[in-house]
Specification:
Blueprint lengths: L1 E4 L6 E8 H7 L4 H16 L8 E7 L4 E7 L6 H8 L4 H21 L12 E3 L5 E3 L4 H5 L5 H4 L12 H19 L16
Antiparallel strand pairs: 1-2, 2-4, 3-4, 5-6
Helix pairs in contact: 4-7
């Protein structure tokens, strides 16, 4: 991930990239998955919501064998770091942020017709006006990255059988984020053993 300057707009942007080799490995022998990837990218380009950090461009550079994902730069960092520096949020601030998250996720699910797949406090950015901007929408699918142990804390526990797991994971993750905003800790220890720590 690199912080860059757009020479036309003079605005800062974030650029992430994936090699074509990695894309081929992720979608090996699966042309349907590759078509879904292309559809996902086209959808991401069309997303327009005040609380979503949208995709500016997706550049397929044949010379460097890399595909670049360009998104807006959000200056105040992620909500996890904000809570670590400033402490838990009061009910009023938590409600403001949670409402913005719900509105953005509703747009992602109902208008864009996709799922986030990796909603975490690290993917909730705070812009210069003090509003939430959800980032990395669809990145899990595009970049094919495995989830870390921390990221798994936002998932519906694996031993619960649920239909439409991707949407349910997004909704579950929103509740985990809200809990963390107010309590400063995760509501359970691991995604395998969902021991709730409600005290």
């Amino acid at each position: 991930m690199r912080l860059c300057l757009d020479t036309e707009t003079r605005k800062h942007v974030i650029i992430k990239y994936i090699t074509r080799n990695k894309i081929n490995k992720n979608f090996k022998k699966n042309t349907l998955a590759y078509r879904i990837l292309q559809t996902q990218i086209a959808t991401l380009k069309k997303i327009s919501h005040a609380n979503i950090n949208g995709l500016i461009d997706f550049v397929d550079d044949i010379k460097s064998d890399k595909v670049y994902y360009v998104s807006e730069y959000v200056s105040k960092g992620c909500l996890l770091d904000y809570i670590a520096s400033n402490g838990v949020l009061g009910i009023k601030s938590a409600w403001k942020y949670f409402r913005q998250i719900v509105l953005a996720m509703s747009y992602i699910h109902e208008v864009a017709g996709i799922t986030h797949r990796n909603l975490t406090l690290r993917n909730l950015l705070i812009d210069s006006a003090g509003n939430i901007r959800i980032t990395d929408v669809g990145h899990r699918f595009v970049f094919g990255k495995e989830k870390s142990e921390e990221e798994e804390l936002y998932d519906v526990p694996k031993d619960l059988e649920v239909e439409n797991r991707a949407v349910k994971n997004d909704i579950w993750a929103m509740s985990v984020c809200l809990y963390y905003m107010i309590k400063g800790k995760f509501p359970y220890i691991t995604s395998q053993k969902y021991i709730f720590l409600l005290s």
